[in-house]
Write a structure and sequence with these properties.
This protein has about 325 residues and is α/β, with parallel strands linked by helices. Helix 5 packs across helix 6 and helix 5 crosses helix 7. The protein is globular and about 70 Å long. The chain starts with 5 loop residues before the first helix and ends in a 5-residue tail after the last helix.
């Protein structure tokens, strides 16, 4: 058992625990650290040249803190020194070592990006959920959300990010990326993730989000007419899928006679919306709870790396919440 310091003894006498303490404790329990560390180690420096490296798990914990709380490299370094909850999650004793600096974290994130490690994290979480019977098969929900990017040209190149574009949604223009999710229709866990520029049509990405064993796919009105697209009709699997998409204009007053028929039509649209709404919870976790409302990095590849991380963490968050609900009093 690790010896308690004066700060641990002092904080143990607090009147109440914070939500941050509870969140980090439950996430520490649901993440399989050994498996994620094993994924990193083949690409991690061995420390035989240059300055000594920090432990892969220590850097991974710092990287996850950055994504959970939407912090910059310098911001998460300062937060570890400032917050007892962060320091406790990092398992750092300041008597023996200091927190990794911002430059070390930047190099670690670059390592994850160049080797596609975060996608392996995402696949690892999906495999874990399937092993525990948390993911069903046969039906998926597809949807996308826009994440804003910086529109300022006050940078070295005097230009906005060339890989991101603007798109009009409703009466408002957006500039940034679009995160696409394929979600299990039964449980709501994310099984597929992709990132494109904001102006890419949602229907263009659907073949990348549908699983091989899916027979039914749900979508909002943005996917209307998808079964008529050539790439869908020419694919042996996609052409047989039952596309249950909400209609853009499910009924018009001048075309329908009020009665039981229109009530039944409304009921069908309502039932499709009930199933389709599960996809929104993953976006809620990423954008509201994790605070990912604005793009931090330039280029699609770097943001795809972060999207895979956030999607994996969103799945773990949903798993942790379900675990807490099934075991009353569990922190």
């Amino acid at each position: 058992m690790e010896q308690m310091g004066f700060a641990d003894i002092e904080y143990a006498n607090r009147k109440r625990r914070t939500k941050r303490d509870d969140f980090l404790e439950i996430m520490d329990h649901v993440i399989v650290w050994e498996e994620w560390t094993d994924i990193i180690m083949p690409y991690y420096p061995n420390g035989k040249r240059g300055r000594p490296t920090r432990g892969a798990e220590t850097m991974l914990r710092m990287y996850l803190l950055q994504n959970w709380f939407n912090l910059s490299d310098e911001g998460v370094e300062d937060a570890i020194y400032d917050s007892y909850a962060f320091r406790n999650f990092m398992k750092i004793n300041f008597l023996d070592e200091q927190a990794p600096d911002a430059t070390t974290l930047c190099k670690f994130r670059k390592l994850l990006d160049e080797n596609g490690i975060t996608k392996s994290f995402f696949e690892s979480v999906k495999h874990f959920l399937e092993e525990h019977g948390k993911i069903m098969h046969g039906g998926s929900i597809v949807d996308a959300t826009i994440v804003d990017a910086a529109t300022s040209t006050k940078n070295e190149s005097k230009k906005r990010d060339p890989e991101m574009h603007q798109v009009k949604k409703g009466n408002q223009w957006y500039f940034g990326i679009r995160i696409h999710h394929g979600v299990d229709a039964g449980t709501g866990y994310i099984h597929s993730c992709d990132v494109t520029a904001a102006n890419v049509n949602e229907r263009d990405v659907v073949p990348n989000l549908v699983r091989e064993d899916d027979d039914v796919v749900y979508g909002d009105k943005g996917y209307c007419g998808i079964e008529k697209r050539e790439e869908i009709k020419n694919d042996p699997h996609l052409s047989k899928i039952d596309w249950r998409v909400n209609k853009q204009k499910p009924y018009r007053k001048n075309e329908w006679i009020p009665g039981e028929g229109i009530k039944w039509y409304k009921y069908l649209e309502y039932q499709k919306s009930r199933v389709r709404s599960k996809v929104e919870y993953g976006f809620y976790i990423i954008k509201r709870i994790f605070g990912y409302k604005k793009v931090r990095y330039r280029g699609i590849p770097k943001n795809l790396t972060q999207a895979h991380t956030l999607s994996a963490l969103a799945n773990l968050y949903m798993f942790a919440q379900a675990r807490k609900a099934s075991v009353p009093g569990l922190v």
